[in-house]
Design a protein that fits this description.
With 351 residues, this protein is an alpha/beta fold. 44% of the residues lie in helices and 17% in strands. It is globular, with a radius of gyration of 22 Å.
């Protein structure tokens, strides 16, 4: 009986130890196609970082098509999944502060540096404003220079008047109005079909969309603006209950590979896939249109009021818009001079 009692106690202790050591799996809800850089680079790399940082106690499982892009925040807030990525422009009326990194600047800078600057600005000025209420922000991101993909060539901005162009919200909507476009609200993944069927004459997207959404196949003319017509703002978020359920040790470990590091990874990915988008379009024989200097100056005048409009909107949210705007560009300059991620630090099937 003593041996049986000892064996039973040992079995119970062993089972408890096994259960305590069982890994926590984070379900990541993702959208865009499986070949998009978020799904081939960001999630695999972050998942590896998380598993290594927690010594296997936390793992990541990526699940596709759990819901459309504009429903992702609710999926996480409701606990349907644990983690996702958001494009703020697809949720009009909710996000205003996130438009800061989207404003046209007419300057070239990397998405990696912009994403790092954005994370620092988010922490310093935006986190307490409550725009992400219901979820915890673990990273932010900025995509590369936004371009116009068209089914016909143009010579001037006047040629764009009335064209039906896919837009995704945010500053994109303001730019669309300034150019007198007829904006058609569509998620990126629906744009190929819309262009094929003649529903749209073009699309506003970043250069990576030429390949990841195959738009180079149906919209063979790309109009670019120095620094981009706009940029795009993203966040990576986790369910608060999931976050609270992790041990202090694991939360601290995940924080080490999230935040600024995850934001940097997102920006790195955007820089890489933009290059691949251009290469793919060139292989398709696409035409890249550079507008004359006077047309660029015209667009600068069209966009001149956007920064002040953003600052006023920020003030209404209780944020010092002038200070936040200046801080973002200070951090952008700082990040441009810092060490960048190397290809050796990420998972990238195409590298």
């Amino acid at each position: 009986m003593k041996k049986l009692a000892t064996l039973t106690a040992f079995t119970a202790l062993s089972l408890g130890a096994f259960q305590g050591a069982a890994a926590t799996e984070l379900t990541v809800s993702t959208w865009a196609g499986p070949n998009h850089g978020v799904n081939t680079i960001v999630w695999p790399t972050w998942g590896k970082w998380v598993e290594e940082a927690t010594e296997g106690r936390v793992t990541v499982n990526v699940v596709h098509d759990m819901g459309p892009p504009n429903a992702q925040m609710e999926l996480i807030a409701d606990g349907v999944a644990d983690v996702t990525w958001l494009f703020h422009g697809l949720m009009p009326g909710r996000f205003e502060l996130t438009k800061l990194p989207e404003l046209p600047t007419f300057e070239d800078f990397s998405s990696e540096a912009a994403s790092v600057a954005y994370w620092r600005t988010h922490n310093e000025y935006f986190a307490e404003a409550g725009e992400h209420r219901g979820v915890e922000v673990i990273g932010v991101g900025v995509h590369g220079p936004g371009s116009l993909f068209l089914n016909q060539s143009i010579d001037s901005l006047d040629d764009l008047r009335g064209k039906r162009v896919r837009i995704g919200g945010g500053v994109m909507g303001d730019i669309s109005n300034a150019l007198a476009l007829t904006g058609v609200a569509l998620p990126p993944a629906s744009t190929y079909e819309a262009a094929t069927q003649g529903v749209v004459d073009g699309a506003m997207l970043t250069l990576e969309g030429l390949k990841s959404f195959r738009l180079a196949e149906v919209l063979p003319y790309t109009v670019q603006m120095p620094g981009g017509f706009y940029r795009g703002s993203f966040s990576l978020v986790i369910n608060p209950d999931t976050w609270a359920s992790l041990s202090d040790e694991d939360r601290e470990a995940i924080e080490e590979v999230s935040g600024e590091r995850l934001s940097r990874l997102f920006g790195y990915m955007m820089d890489v896939v933009d290059v691949r988008g251009v290469e793919f379009a060139e292989q398709q024989g696409n035409t890249f249109i550079e507008l004359p200097a006077e047309e660029i100056e015209r667009f600068q005048q069209m966009a001149a009021d956007l920064p002040d409009a953003w600052k006023a909107a920020a003030e209404q949210k209780g944020v010092d818009g002038e200070a936040a705007h200046a801080y973002f560009f200070e951090q952008l300059d700082a990040a441009e001079g810092e060490e960048v991620l190397s290809a050796d630090e990420v998972i990238d099937p195409e590298s």
